[in-house]
Amino acid sequence: MDTSTEPEIVMPGDRVLVILDKRRRYIVEARRGVVLQTDRGVLSMDDVLGRPYGSRVEMRGGQYAYILRPLPEDLMLLGFRRRSQVIYPKDLGYIILLSGVKPGSRVVEAGVGSGFLTFTLAYLVGDNGIVYGFDVREDMIKTARSNLMMAGLLNRVRLAVHDVRRGFPVQSTVDAVFLDLPDPWNTVGHIYSVLKASGRVIVFQPTVNQVEKTASALKKHGGFTDIRAVEILLREYIVEEGRVRPHTRMIGHTGFIIHARKVLIEGGEKK
Amino acid sequence: MDTSTEPEIVMPGDRVLVILDKRRRYIVEARRGVVLQTDRGVLSMDDVLGRPYGSRVEMRGGQYAYILRPLPEDLMLLGFRRRSQVIYPKDLGYIILLSGVKPGSRVVEAGVGSGFLTFTLAYLVGDNGIVYGFDVREDMIKTARSNLMMAGLLNRVRLAVHDVRRGFPVQSTVDAVFLDLPDPWNTVGHIYSVLKASGRVIVFQPTVNQVEKTASALKKHGGFTDIRAVEILLREYIVEEGRVRPHTRMIGHTGFIIHARKVLIEGGEKK
Amino acid sequence: MDTSTEPEIVMPGDRVLVILDKRRRYIVEARRGVVLQTDRGVLSMDDVLGRPYGSRVEMRGGQYAYILRPLPEDLMLLGFRRRSQVIYPKDLGYIILLSGVKPGSRVVEAGVGSGFLTFTLAYLVGDNGIVYGFDVREDMIKTARSNLMMAGLLNRVRLAVHDVRRGFPVQSTVDAVFLDLPDPWNTVGHIYSVLKASGRVIVFQPTVNQVEKTASALKKHGGFTDIRAVEILLREYIVEEGRVRPHTRMIGHTGFIIHARKVLIEGGEKK
Amino acid sequence: MDTSTEPEIVMPGDRVLVILDKRRRYIVEARRGVVLQTDRGVLSMDDVLGRPYGSRVEMRGGQYAYILRPLPEDLMLLGFRRRSQVIYPKDLGYIILLSGVKPGSRVVEAGVGSGFLTFTLAYLVGDNGIVYGFDVREDMIKTARSNLMMAGLLNRVRLAVHDVRRGFPVQSTVDAVFLDLPDPWNTVGHIYSVLKASGRVIVFQPTVNQVEKTASALKKHGGFTDIRAVEILLREYIVEEGRVRPHTRMIGHTGFIIHARKVLIEGGEKK
Questions:
Q1: Burial, D146: exposed, middle or buried (Cβ in 10 Å; 0-12, 13-18, 19+)?
Q2: CB neighbours (10 Å) of residue C138?
Q3: Residue of B nearest to C256 (CA)
């Protein structure tokens, strides 16, 4: 094997994932003097800097911790600030796949909230892609911006306080539109305008009533086909040898995913 | 809006998605002389070439069809040849998210089968990434190669007939390892060797017994933490106004997703 | 063991359950001259009469069949005529438990349809109980009557063509009320009148919109508390040794169960 | 309406269900001097005795409580003592339906635990039926007995400390056998002996491994057909008008239900 197999080292400024056990896991900035306090012991980042990722480090107090490079879900679930209901990995994964987002994609998101989806999109579109993100609440935009900055992806997003019921202030059509709004039916004409033909609009909503109204508005507009609604459920298993079973508790509901594709309306676009 | 909002036109050689209704949907190559025969009418690609994507085209027989640019799931579900059980979008989405794959990622897949996951990975790693794909069966590698070629992503993959129980013939460590094999427990040491520390191994398997054996082997090896098993269920809804309800039928099971992260073993790597 | 362990014998007039394999199962009347024709062979009831229940009998054609005494679900799923959507065992079981029905209970059902729930109720209330069953369609009442007669429980039911939106023609209050109607919200006042205080009304409905309207009407009336809506899902497993897994297909939806308990309205009953 | 519609009155010695709100619900014995203390106020049974069931009663502290006659699930979930994992209504309902239990049935249960299933069976078999219940732990038998006594159904059950791996000490064959044991595969021959031909054995178990072993043992014995395993999931909905949605949390797993029917083994019974 070549030199690229040299282990990666924790560098100053890295965000590292610290795992003590199933429940105790933290995102910490690796800087001199930073200390992680837990009920199982204390970990100084001085003891972590310069160690290879994947290392097991002894905390003051005797317990061991694993130091890992965080994956996207770790950043979101452990590192991000939250000011709103968030979209969870099970839903994010399906939304991403439906959308066809890829390196270089240009996409729009309205209702960025804490920026979980914004981050996932920015992560996947790469440096040649762009994510336009809007929210009517300034505190949400601030939270999302701070989360994206922490994740090092702020250069791929354009965030603005804006109500998309007044239109999408984007220079040209985009590959996909993502909405996490209470009333997406009030911006259907604008979705049509900003979305490339064949592209998908994907809406995430908690109640069945919203699903009904959103799907109805998309149907009535006429510029959308393949209108569908689904729900993703995740079941966790406990895998002890000889005692495999589903977890006793599960998340019963997060939200519904409604999606549709833009088709051209004959004789021009209608709003 | 600027000129980039000019509609995209169907060009010779494009694979187009033709939608007649919920069930009648096809991937067709847009070339002169190619004709799509359906029980609802006949569509000549001569009538499709040069039209903007998103257009509604009248078929011979009177019914209309929408002509769309396919999204990844369309290519897989409608365009790909299948020689094996495949991994469906609900599972692909979650697997992708777990893996942290992104533009430029280098990943390994064993048990490529018809290449559904291979394609999804190649789609997301971009031109700077690479997907190494192995299968013990030559017919699978051929099928996967033909599917990737059709999708135009063959340049991002290295496919080979190979049994990964003898190791992963890859030059340097990779960001993630994906397995769809009957017996991944027989290659755990090799997974450890090929995977970067902090990286995830993700296994897809149909039976609970395989989940148990895989998780046990990962635990026993010692070089993995955060070993988990989950299952993704997708529920479709029928959204007629005033009559919203879940579909009467659903897919009850595809497979389980087992995943773990590599940590470093003290005092060197064990196989 | 005493004489009651003598095996039970198939007697003329019995309805027997014939099991060839997972899919081939039949309810047949055990009478001289009756013959069961299947694609796997022919079984004459002459060869079955006088045999102990539980016997394995060779069919003409060589295949063996088991002769069993049917359980309630066999009668319903294999023996009953159907003229409507039916309520399945997974839902029947929960409905029964919620209702508190027991030997001697007096209950009312509206929307009897093919009589699956009617039969289950009659089965459990015993000879001292009674089930009042109503339906607006005469063909339904006929089908339900014929099914109850076949099951030998017609003496425990009173079936009538009647629209319960005009009230429940029952002499005194009942222990529980069961509804499988498109618009139960139009008979809420009558439900209140016919139901004993503390008793439960249980409604089975296919769409979320109906659930919403029913629950809202029960709330607005004021004479009900503990208003809830649930859904029961059944997952089947394939249990081959070493290859245990959920079934690939499952029933994704049958209906929702809404239930509530009657409380007294101060200052008299309101309709 | 006749006199049977006279409201039922709370009598001394009754167990009543007191409902304050969704979470605050209690089973209390209605006797002079008994007082229910809650964080929302105090309810004296002196104020409840003689009131009609269904009444709304003001507590000291100002909050109102509904006084209802308990249904079986209330007794179990609120009134019973628990010394073990219990079987929940969603599973009890389906188990009951599968078993064909009815007024007059004679059944056997092993692993009675806290007596939830024992009670449900006793409730449905009526005064002419009987439930034989066994457990290896004396504390369980005591708990179950106390719960059945509280429910007023002790006359229908015969409880004993006994290990059914040594056989079922029952005088004659029974209509159904229920098991909630860690290792039912060790008593398969005895199940065959005690169960009537055509009757069902129903096993409740938490892990997939137990399901596999139980089903395998039933297959190998040869005296059982129609061996199946299922799981029941219950999903609760929040039904606020205009905001209908599934609950955020749900019970992800209680147990699996394995069931089979006894058929006769040619040439006598084997153990």
A1: middle
A2: 9
A3: B245
pLDDT in tens, C135-171: 999 999 999 999 999 999 999 999 999 999 999 999 8
D252 CB neighbours in chain A (<8 A) are: 235-236, 246-250
Average pLDDT over residues B130-145: 98
Cα distance from N-terminal residue to C-terminal residue, chain B: 59
Partnered with residue C251 across adjacent β-strands are B249
Stretch A215-243: mean pLDDT: 97
Amino acid at A151: A
Indicate the pLDDT class of residue C1, thresholds 50, 70 and 90: very low
pLDDT band at D271 (very low <50, low <70, confident <90, very high): very low
- State how far the Cα of C236 lies from the Cα of A109, in Å rounded to an integer: 40
Topology of the domain comprising C3-70: Vcp-like ATPase; Chain A, domain 2 (3.10.330)
Q: What is the mean pLDDT of residues D76-101?
A: 95
Mean pLDDT value of segment A175-184: 97
Residue type at B27? I
Q: Is C41 exposed, middle or buried (0-12, 13-18, 19+ CB in 10 A)?
A: middle
A232 to B90: CB separation less than 8 angstroms, yes or no: yes
Tens-digit pLDDT profile for residues B20-78: 998 999 999 999 999 999 999 999 999 999 999 999 999 998 899 999 999 999 999 99
Say if B251 is an interface residue toward chain C (CB within 8 Å). Answer: yes
Report in angstroms the alpha-carbon separations of B38 from A165, B32, B33, B125, D109: 41, 18, 16, 36, 59
pLDDT in tens, C72-91: 999 999 999 998 889 999 99
- Nearest CB to A235; choose among B17, B125, B230: B230
B126–A102 C-beta distance less than 8 A: yes
CA–CA separation, D104 vs A78, rounded Å? 58
Q: In the complex, which subunits touch D with 3 or more CB pairs below 8 angstroms?
A: A, B, C
d(CA A144, CA D221): 62
Q: Which of C87, C253, C254 to mutate to test the interface with B (most CBs of B within 10 A)?
A: C253
User: What b/e string do you get for C112-129 counting C-beta neighbours within 10 Å, with b at 16 or more?
Assistant: bbbbbbbbbbbbbbbeeb
Domain residues of chain D, as ranges? 3-70, 74-262
Q: What's the CATH superfamily of A74-262?
A: Vaccinia Virus protein VP39 (3.40.50.150)
| Number of inter-chain CB pairs under 8 A, A vs D | 56
**Residue A221 region, left (φ>0) first, then alpha (ψ -120 to 50), else beta?**
alpha
Q: Give CA–CA dist D5/C259, Å, rounded.
A: 22
pLDDT digits (tens, 9 = 90+) for C171-188: 899 999 999 999 999 999
Tokens of B57: 């085209």
Which of C7, C103, C198 is the closest to D68 by Cβ? Answer: C198
Integer angstrom CA distances of residue C61 from A194, C20, C26, C41, D265:
68, 12, 17, 5, 22
β-strands C130-135, C256-262 pairing: unpaired
Question: For residue B222, which of B259, B185, B266, B184 has the smallest C-alpha distance?
Answer: B266
ipTM: 0.95
Report the pLDDT value the prediction gives residue C89, as an integer from 0 to 100.
96
Could you tell me if D208 lies within 8 Å of chain B, comparing CB atoms? yes
